[in-house]
Amino acid sequence: MTSFAAIDAKCILDAGSTGIIMLSDRILAPRKHEWLIPGPEAHWAKVAFEKFFLASRWRGHV
After folding, report:
1. pLDDT band for position 13 (50/70/90)?
2. What b-and-e string marks burial along 39-53, b requiring 16 or more CB atoms within 10 Å of the CB?
3. Bridge-partner residues for 12, per DSSP?
4. Bond prior to 38 in cis (omega within 30° of 0)
5. What residues make up the domain containing 46?
6. pLDDT tens digits for range 21-41
7. Domain count, the chain
């Protein structure tokens, strides 16, 4: 079983027309890799995920 600290972290922070995509190999330190990717791509990714998520719920795929 994987410990809680060893879970990968993936987050999209949306701030208007821009945002930040955060990725890391672990939630808690020590981390080997962590990325912060700023730009409008984060906003597009958030909108795409929201459309996918809502469409899957409307179809009953939980």
Report:
1. very high
2. eeebbeebeeeeeee
3. 21
4. no
5. 4-58
6. 999 999 888 889 999 999 999
7. 1
CB 18 within 8 A of CB 39: yes
Burial class (CB in 10 A: 0-12, 13-18, 19+), 13: middle
Nearest to 20 by CA among 33, 41, 38, 46: 38
Give the separation between CA 19 and CA 12, rounded to whole angstroms: 7
> CA 47, CA 61: separation in Å to the nearest integer?
19
- Written as one letter, the residue type at 18 is T
Tokens linked to 56:
């899957």
Residue 14 tokens read as: 């949306």
Question: Position of tokens 């987050």?
Answer: 11
pLDDT interval class at 4 (50, 70, 90): confident
- Reference 39, options 17, 8, 24, 61; nearest CA is 17
